[in-house]
Amino acid sequence: MNINDKVSTGLEGFDQVIDNLRLGDNVVWQADSVSDYKKMVGYFAARAGKENMRLVYIRFGSHEQILEESPKVMVYRIDANKGFESFATEIYNVIKKEGRRVLYVFDCLTDLLKYWHSDLMIGNFFKATCPYLYELDTVAYFAIIRNFHTYGTIAGIRETTQLLLDIYQVNNKTYIHPLKVWQRYSPTMFFPHLIQGQEAVCITASSDASELFTNIRRSENRLDYWNIIFNRAKKMLNFSLKRQEATKKRLMYMLIGSDSRMFELCVRYLTLKDILLTASREVGTGFIGGKSVGMLLARKIIEIEGEERFTPLLEPHDSFYIGSDVFYTYIVQNGWWRLRAKQKTKEGYYKYAPELKDKLLHGSFPKDIREQFVQMLEYFGQSPIIIRSSSLLEDNFGNAFAGKYESVFCVNQGTPEDRYEAFEQAIRTVYASTMNEDALNYRMNRGLFELDEQMAILVQRVSGDQYGEYFFPHIAGVGNSSNLYVWDESIDMNSGMLRLVFGLGTRAVDRTDGDYVKVVCLDDPLRIPPMNYEDQNKFSQHRLDTLSFTDNALVIRDLDEILPLDLKTDKKLFMSPDYITAARMRELGYTDRRIPDILDFKKLFTDTEIMPVMREMLALLSKAYDYPVDIEFTANLKKDNSFKINILQCRPLQTKGLGNTVKIPELANEKDCFFSGKGSFMGGSVRLSIDFVVFVQANTYLELNEQGKYAVARQIGLINKEIKGRNVMLVGPGRWGSTTPSLGIPVHYAELCNMTVICEYSSEKAGFMPELSYGSHFFQDIVEAGIFYVAIFDGHKDVIFNPDRILKEENMLPSLLPQSNQFSDVIHIAKSNGMEIYSDIVTQKLLCR
Question: Is residue 841 located within the same domain as residue 731?
Fold first, then answer.
């Protein structure tokens, strides 16, 4: 070894014992106090100063300062309270900036327990940081306080570090006992040594060694600090609620996060007992995430504000929570932290995401976490479960993250080994979804890319029952306490609305291909959205999502295949005779066929109390939140029409607000406007000026093959980038964001996120129809971004639509995007020439001229 690769501890005698420190060494001192560690740092720093070596001090603890800043000591102050990821990333950036052959002194790692409350995360930080220090040929000093950490944490540190040294003060004497010295050995190296000045005297005599160690306190195997805190908190249940309050808040900071509007609601409604019950069902440590918090809070609000009236109607939940610390542990222990740190930078944000996503899909979990997973699965048995994302930023005021992260059903069939592997892979899939393009764009566009986005997971029993080989709830959907999409001036916005489906609720949160959900105004559930009466069957649900025990998967089935099964309740609650279709069949000469059914839920609305209950529960939640809310729910019924409702999640409803009353100009001539109507818009009362209109023509779009339709969607994305910063109205046939090109244009949200207004227009000839899909993930994105939405039902009463107002103007597509000239017959971009759009939420009037 080159003599220049050796570094002194500052104690010449101890240097001889361990054959010096080497470049690359991480040195962990296990001490009884910070002052003992400070003494060793003093020797190290003094020698570094004499040899003119660069010394960096990383200050994060609340204990006494280890080193003072000076020309020879560079001090970086890092805020550990920001959380593991921000802390570890900031230190990574410091190490990267300082470069090679630097000496480091870190504050005592045990102090991190005050901020993170978790031994596991201290071990993760050490494992994430030390390999990088080693690669850069540094020497780094760390300390941990003896008897404060679990054996698992110490074992992880021992495995990672190059030197692990015990330091003791016994009878005013200092002893150092090397426990690990990597790639060095001597016959006396691992004996304890008495430090006398610069000398290190080896304690070899058995009598001296036994006398020394009998004076040293050793602990039994300790619980993680996290568990110690919660175990102590249980004792507070014996005291009054007032005395419990401080303990409850401390635990909430650990499980829920920092002060926020959601935190304040949790303080108001959740008890210490509720928090302890939640913690008892957590795997690992850390936050449980926004989705879990929203679900727990909603159920508690309904219980308290409903004065127990709704409690008998709620299906009990027995959810588990995989703590956010498990996400980081998974990344660190698989060796991906460096990649994660590079991906978190602005230049690496998109560059490294695909690689990290691939790795997240193929990692392994620590043994203790796997054991907890097994216990959870044994609890659920073969009941279907769903593994749902529950990130820190999800379902909060201002950021819904609707549909950005994955949820995965586990039908839970097969051998225990098969079921376990499917469960593990579901977790990996949720973790990997943090690197999905939509999620990355969402965080970037909302200025969140630098924030910690720790991924917790909510594991729920799937609500429903078995019917033949299938498992599903009778009904499911999305509920909004405010109906922001109204098409009739008689609609009471404050009564709320539902997007209702038969079967699993996946169809209610996405714009489904070739199928329609039931839009329910809770002030009058029988009211029909804008459509011709004879088109009710066409614009109803014809398929359902269900779990198949035979296929062990989520499948789509035709209603005709499911309805013959015994549904364990009255099928007439969901189905009504479709006399209109029957009449058409008779006209075609089919006189011997039975009258078909239509899924319209009429008897569910008239013969059960589900709709009034949903309306009241939504009102209770909205009042408690002091804000409109958005929920996901299921309901299951029995033969006597009794029912149980399951609240799966609740979040603040993303809404731009109603705005002030807007006076709508009078039209002298119908041809003076682009469009006008009553209702069928979202975005409140507005007066917006429009610079450009991007218009997709229905007939020419329809003539394209499927590949051509997808190409049009990609062109919209290019236009979206090109016109950023201008007021642009995007107008297209059918559904924007459809997964089926024959029903609309299959854009992603990121391909129209810069638009000011988006319009969907109907074309009876081409078969395109807008869908009232407020409550879907796509529409959540639009409302969050403040994009005004309009549905134009051409030919309906009170609707004026003049496409020629735009199409007669010069098409600017070739000049704006010369490479897109081939799409000029489909996409028409025109200057608006002073066009404005007016809407008034009170009168429900809409005008664009």
Answer: yes
Contact between 200 and 17 under an 8 Å Cβ cutoff? The reply is yes
Mark whether 375 and 387 lie in a shared domain.
Answer: yes
* Same domain, yes or no: 382 and 458: yes
Residue with token string 């994009």: 787
- Between CA 783 and CA 656 the distance in angstroms is 6
Q: How many angstroms separate the CA atoms of 666 and 590, rounded?
A: 51
Q: DSSP H helical segments within 215-285, as ranges?
A: 225-234, 241-255, 261-269, 272-280
| Residues 6 or more apart whose Cβ sits within 8 Å of residue 699 | 763, 765, 766
Global pTM value = 0.83
Beta bridge partners of 472: 465
Residue identified by tokens 């932290």 is 337
| Co-location of 86 and 105 in the same domain | yes
Has residue 829 been placed in a domain? yes
Dist. CA 738–CA 784, nearest whole Å? 19
Question: Along the chain (849 residues), what's the average pLDDT of each consecutive run of 10 residues?
Answer: 76 94 96 95 95 95 94 95 90 95 97 92 94 96 92 90 93 90 87 91 74 62 84 93 93 89 93 96 94 96 94 95 95 94 89 96 95 95 95 62 81 94 97 89 73 86 97 95 75 88 86 74 86 70 94 95 94 87 69 78 96 97 92 96 95 66 86 89 85 95 94 95 91 88 88 92 81 60 77 88 94 92 95 90 86
- Write out the H or E segment, with its range, that includes residue 124: helix 119-135
Token code pair at residue 392 = 């820190």
Measured CA to CA, the distance from residue 63 to residue 77 in angstroms comes to 13
Q: How far apart are CA 745 and CA 740, in angstroms?
A: 8
The residue type of 435 is M
Closest CA to 319 of 356, 289, 342, 286: 289
Provide the pLDDT for residue 595: 75
What's the one-letter identity of residue 827?
Answer: I
Q: Which of 535, 501, 497 is nearest to 518 (CA)?
A: 501
In whole angstroms, give the CA distance from residue 239 to residue 730.
Answer: 61
Verify that 511 and 607 share a domain, yes or no: yes
Beta bridge partners of 470: 467, 548
Same domain, 477 and 380: no
Question: In whole angstroms, what is the distance from residue 142 CA to residue 37 CA?
Answer: 9
The token pair at 661 is 């009353």
Side chain identity at residue 643, one-letter code: F
pLDDT, position 775: 47
Question: Is the separation of the CB atoms in 768 and 698 below 8 Å?
Answer: yes
Sequence-separated (6 or more) residues with CB below 8 Å from residue 768: 698, 702, 733, 734, 735, 743, 744, 761, 762
**Residues of 363-388 as b/e, b for ≥16 C-beta within 10 angstroms?**
bebbeebeebbeebbeebeeebbbbb
End-to-end CA distance of the chain: 82
Tell me, rounded to whole angstroms, the distance of Cα 109 from its chain centroid. Answer: 29
Query: Coil, strand or helix: which one is 478?
Result: strand
pLDDT for the residue 240 = 92
State whether 471 and 413 are in the same domain. Answer: no
Number of domains the chain contains = 4
Euclidean distance between CA atoms 91 and 84, whole angstroms: 11
Please report the pLDDT score of residue 784 as a whole number.
62
Which residues, other chains included, contact 347 with Cβ-Cβ below 8 Å and sequence gap of 6+?
none
The verdict on residue 553 lying in a domain is no
Q: Are 659 and 684 in contact (CB under 8 A)?
A: yes
**Cβ contact 71:42 at 8 Å:** no
Residue 309, domain member (yes or no): no
HSE (side-chain half, CA atoms, 13 Å) at 543: 11
Residues 608, 643 contacting (CB under 8 angstroms): yes
Range(s) of the domain holding residue 25: 3-214
> How many CB atoms neighbour CB 102 within 10 A?
20
- Asked if residues 747 and 737 have their Cβ atoms less than 8 Å apart, the reply is yes
Is beta strand 575-577 parallel, antiparallel or unpaired with respect to 597-599? Answer: antiparallel
CB half-sphere exposure, 548, CA atoms < 13 A: 12
